[in-house]
Fold these 3 entries.
Entry 1:
Amino acid sequence: MAYIVAEPCIRCKYVDCVEICPVMCFHEGANCLVIDPDECIDCGACVDQCPVNAIFPEESLPEKWREFVEINARFSKEWPVITHKQVPLPTADEYKSVENKRALLDPTPGAGDV
Amino acid sequence: MAVEVRLKELLGGNTMDAAPELVVQEENGDIRCVACGHRCLIREDKAGICRVRFNRKGVLRVPGGYVAGLQIDPIEKKPFFHAFPGREALSFGMLGCDFHCGYCQNWVTSQALRDDAAVVLPKVCDATELVALGTRHRTPVVVSTYNEPLITSEWAVQVFEKARAAGMVCGYVSNGNATPEVLSFLRPFVDLYKVDLKGFNDKNYRKLGGVLKNVCDTIERLKAMGFWVEIVTLVVPGFNDSPEELRHMGEFLAGISPDIPWHVTAFHPDYKMTEPPRTTIHELERAYDAGKEAGLHFVYPGNLPGLVGDRESTYCPSCHTLLIRRRGFLVLENRMKGNGCAKCGAAIPGVWEEHAPKQSAGDGYPRAVRL
């Protein structure tokens, strides 16, 4: 089991989580982050860093976001690693309480920093 | 959750400042703890992955002044087979762990801060009381064990300073998720160090909460720094017992030193890992063979006392004379002469007493003790 970044991250990308991760398993897309399930050590340190509660252990991921298990697995192999805190997206405050953002997920890789 | 809160409140009073050697100050009041290989960046009012080391107003606070497990164990239970054979070790533990192994056999203490089902109430004490207990029971060794000692290293060092002054030798029973900083911090006080090598597959290691490379680096570093090191691998059917994985572990250890004792111990279902069956005698013998074929001089199948032939005993690697005959945690006969083989005189690696007991004084079982 790994931790999963789910829909609330989309168009927010606060990036508070990445510096906490002891194994550098966050990967950056253009408008959200994902966790590499093969690298995650299940420590859970990232969970309470996220201001929009986007991170869940796989076993308690809300059913409506089940698709994000596969999204994390897939995009973590395509997007670059990110390890340092950055400025959130300019759209973060506007989208932090918006629901049903799945269609807005941008598959373009982010810049990463490793 | 209520249990966790109560426990946290209880433990909140039993903390002290972290050793400066184990803290790196970062920006904005953040702290990086280097007591274990996670190297947690801990923000204000947050705790590290272990949940027992936390940032209070820019200061790293760590546990001290209590024990959650305390007994006198045969030293063979740690297990150390090449240190003070037949003698006893005062053994204490605290609460918490930086891993979350599904098969933990000490989960009531190690997972106390993660799992409400794990409840052991800590007992407040000071280092002097603990060492006095060891003196009273004449234990030559004192060991930090049961939970992960790395995350409570400051408390261990407080106890060990006094224990060494009282003539005792000190040890760690650890998962090996260490850092160079914490090993340097411990080295003046710790002579015996047992590491759990939980497998040789990084993906599986991550399921337990660790990274294989950190543990391998620790084992190499411990030997280079002159600790006496013994390794344990719990052989879990279907998890880490493939012929390749056993061979890789044996070869890795033999590559560091063929004199490292490797304990391959039998699994029994525990905590959350209840599906794999118990390790059979045959499976344990396979692990033993893998270690011997890799070139290790001392491989010991554990947890199946009396069922693995003469493999629990120590033989001289030079002349193959029986040196220490064991069953389980019991030394039945010690024929060593000082630190060498009684027959050919070859030096046997380990930490030996000049006048060791010829057999265990106790019955091979732990003894409950009270402060």
Note: The first strand of chain B starts at residue 15 and ends at 17.
Entry 2:
Amino acid sequence: MAAPLLDVDQLRKRYGDTPVVDGLSFGIARGECLGIIGPNGAGKTTTLRMCLGLTAPDEGRITAMGLSMPGDAMAIKARFGVVSQFDSLDPDFSCAENLMVYGRYFGLPVAVVRERIPRLLEFAALTHKADVKPAELSGGMRRRLSLARALVNDPDLLLLDEPTTGLDPQARHLMWERLQVLLQQGKSILLTTHFMDEAERLCSRLLVMDHGRKIAEGAPRELIARHLEPDVVEAYGQGASALAHSDARAFAERVEVSGETVFFYTRGAGPLLQALSREPRLRTLHRPANLEDLFLKLTGRQIRQEG
Amino acid sequence: MRTGLCHPPDLSLRWWPVFLRNLLVWRKLAVPSLVGNIAEPLMWLVAFGYGMGALVGQVQVGDRAVPYILFLASGSVCMSAMNAASFEALYSAFSRMHVQKTWDGIMNAPVSLDSIVLAEMLWAAFKALFTVVAILLVMLALGISHSPKLLAALPLLAFAAVAFSCIALIFNALARGYDFFTYYFTLFVTPMMFLSGVFFPREQLPGVLRAASDWLPLTHAVELVRPLFMDQWPQRPLLHLLALAGYAVAAFGAALVLTRRRFR
């Protein structure tokens, strides 16, 4: 088997007394899209920063393409493309100039970057905005420009930190579509997100992280099958919270209450739905279990302080 | 790349694209920024040089009496080098580092933090040199000095600007916001302006202040540059150059360590 593109082994980082990353190990194979999901403060961004050599781990080993961090940080970063959580585009430059200036940081000859710029702008659907400054772009356009900028060195691995946070659905779908094109071209992606639909759509493998630890790992569907009952019935409306202790409880393997909504997790929703239909003021939603259910089951429903 | 805070600089030629980035941005705004940079020092020069100069008449420098405007011009060009370098390494560098997150973007590419700090330092010095050249040209046009030795003032002023950029980058690394720089200017830069012999001879200072002023970087810059305006060579060039070099090296080292701590 070929050496993994990125290999992280027993990574640990603490700030003061708080462990932020606590014995994390994972690898990414070529052509793979690995998603790291976890609540705010789970250690996702710190993990990415350590992979980039921007934060020094207390313990553990990071190797990429036969090189190791932090000694070969510059050589490794030459083959990475990064979209960070917050835009760092140059406000004084146009889109095309942003790409040119960024290409120079990789030591690329001007002629090479100049030749790549039209393709990158086209890929980001920004050809008509080549001479426009970032401040005049929409949020989605700015993110796509950040993505185009991350591709300027034709990287082997893309590291994306919450690439669609703050975007409207149209912009998010366009971003997903662009990322899928990259995956089809054989690029590898490491992605952090807390959008479960994003993780399910893009990632071949997921790593669920909480309190700096890996708490689950696998393909999205496989994770759901392993941890959850296949069907979910949500019941809400007047008197819903009492249902958790009613006769209907017997038709579900597991029940969760969140505010005024009751979640029934079951292997066969038929008898349950029939029982619930006797309550006229109740509204129900029957759906297959999804990643969000998995995420909430593994990391809990309570709001995090850090969030 | 090395880890930890205290280690030799981790530099490569990648400082150049960062310097070039600043140059390209500045090129777009060069004219208004130049006007801003030279208008204020020239106002000081005209108001104090001609206004006060009429009252003061001649000023004794060593064994020579020179017109006050010449005395002031030679000091204020050093002050301009200091101010231009400090402003760029504080307000502008801080905008790029903290507000625009330009440095974060650059560090995702194979450019080390140390290289970025070096680029910012050289850029601030370069911009100060540019300002100083413009001011010297106006002084030449006003006929304040026609000494051919003024050509030698350019590398010396560039060197002084490097020292002031390095010092300013320490405070850039420590700043939590723009307000912090007010302290730097009111507690460090402004007193230095008055203690370094820019506006009046240091001989006028009381003994303690006089002794303190011997240690100020601006004093060394003025001592190097003023004689050139009078068509003379500085008296102890090596001492002043070494003093400025000492400030530059020590301050750059401190700025690197503190900036690394900030980005840890």
Note: Residues 15-56 of chain B form the longest helix (42 residues).
Entry 3:
Amino acid sequence: MKPRLWHFHGGLKLEGHKAMSMHEAVVQADIPRRLVLPLQQHIGEPAEPIVEIGDSVLKNQVIAQASDYVSVPVHAPTSGTVISIEDHPVPHPSGMSAACIIIETDGKDIAIETNTTPVDYKNLEASALRNLIREAGIVGLGGAGFPSFIKLNPGPDARVETLILNGAECEPYITCDAMLMQDSPRKIIDGLLIMRHALNIDKCIIAIEDNKKAAHTMLVNALREDETSFINVIQIPTLYPAGGEKQIIKVVTGKEVPSHGLPIDVGVVCHNVGTAAAVADAILNRQPLIERYITVTGDAVKQPRNLRVRFGTSVESLLKQCEGYDVQQCIMGGPMMGFELTSQSIPVIKTTNCLLTSRKKYHAPTSMPCIRCGECAKACPAQLLPQQLYWYARAKDFDKIQDYNLFDCIECGCCAYVCPSHIPLVQYYRFAKTEIWAMERDKQKSDIARERHEFRLYRMERKKVEDEERKRRKKALLKAAAGDKTTEDDKKKAAIEAALARVKAKREQQNSQAKNVNEEELTEAQKKAIAEVEERRIKAREKQQIKIEENKEESGSS
Amino acid sequence: MLEAILVITVLAVLFGLLLGFASVRFKVEGDPVVDQIDALLPQTQCGQCTYPGCRPYAEAIAKGEADINQCPPGGEATIHALADLLGVDPKPLNEEHGVHSEKTVVVIDEQVCIGCTLCIQACPVDAILGAAKQMHTVISSECTGCDLCIPPCPVDCIHVVPVKDTLQTWKWPYPENPVESEEVS
């Protein structure tokens, strides 16, 4: 039974140029002396290196670990020595450099010893399975490079009904997915079964453009009897960009992913066929992602073909193997969405699917004013209004352009392709997108700065209040201390006076009765002697009294 | 006649009460215009506008004391945003306050730093870390590039460096379009 298919809006019929790179069987590319491995080969946070310069590494060894949730590790593609961790040009439209681990290979290609028994995934929980997929460093191999384990985690509330394997490969020249489907159909189906188990769903669809008959036949033949009930291998019409995620979902299921939404919102998860094969390798062969199929094609290579390439291999080395000559221009990716490489020392990474070479440097034709023909709107597969977007991007009106759903643009290039005035429309949209992102980053940064500045003002105010309070309290304490001193003096005085009074009283008592002899029994001479002694005593006492008084005065004045 | 007057009076009293209630119930705290202006300013807190920080400048604009073209770090984009918000004509940046330049941050030459803490006291966003007689360093992710820490430094160990583009912050250039730009001009 032929399944029902739908159409997406617009699209282009492009010449495929696919046959030229499909004559040769896929072979392993040579491993060059130096492999350059960017720490960021995916969307998200770059990985963090866990090796040091001078370390020997073995094939499949983890050399950089995931640094965040949206991040995956990087593995050594072969054995050798880490000679440097430095900035090196990486595949990016800017031609900029980023941190890379550079390995000098030893040619032995010795793998690290690990457990190689296949994982019994059917008895494994989805989260454990996702972890294994993450540890194998698997990202979407279709081009965007989003970590695959996240797409296999729809969340508790989401209801996934369909898993689509995307084998459309709609861009001209690229044939790496087609070759993979022809070479290892069973591996792709195994990967599909693993993903199906992780998502806990039933229905799976493998969608292939109808210009890849061989790939379709191979996959259908590779299906086992019992699998045909839930895996549907279907052909879809060849129409660029049928391989876009939202477009293939529309074609296969008739559902439209909402603006700003994800496929999961319509119950669909979509993965590339290459990703499925990588998942099968990771789970059944315990082989992390260290290589992939890459198409090397175009008119500047004598032998356009597909190669199985270890990541980190330089473009230069690949072109040499395919007998490149007079390469004036090299595009990474396809002719519609790829970007020009600024240097041949740039390495291939997980998301590299094609190197398109040319003997002529392409010069964009001079653009003419827009004549408002509306061809771009007819071609747009996202049903946007490219003309409106263009006006607002040109005028740098970044609020208005978002009202026209700029961020639903998939940058497929259909509008610019059909534009009779040769206006570089996609470049305008990319310009607007990156400007808006930069503005959002600035806004976030200024919000943080405002918060920090306000906190600083608050802190200084608080410090001022606290200082004043402290000063006030200290003053009060001093005052209280001074008050205490006077009362203490009073107490002391009182104590001294009391002591003096006691002494005085005692003396008087002594004077009055301290006579242990009867006076009448005494002789005159004795009486006289006593009186003299008494006199001396009194004098001495007076002297003492004066001394005490003096002392008291002294201590009082001090 | 009397009926009409009565009806109108009752209505007037009713609506008056309603308005009075609404003004109490839906009272707006603070001055929203100042907040809106402040949200558009870059929060560099550099003081080049002659006001001690972005919020005082926002308050001055709201009161009509300051012009909208006194913020060099914000440059043309901020002037346009302010003009949009306030419904006035944009004007070129007032050069008296400085010129708009690429984003920068400061770094402290840690070999030279004597740990005087003067820069810490000058930093409006607490982006400098250090203590007395200890080495200081700038938290570059928090630095706004206001350069206020440079004059107080007694040993001139603070240097301005431009913020480097990374893969994440790189922007596609505006398409060159000679024919069209001629036509526009």
Note: Chain A has a mean pLDDT of 90.
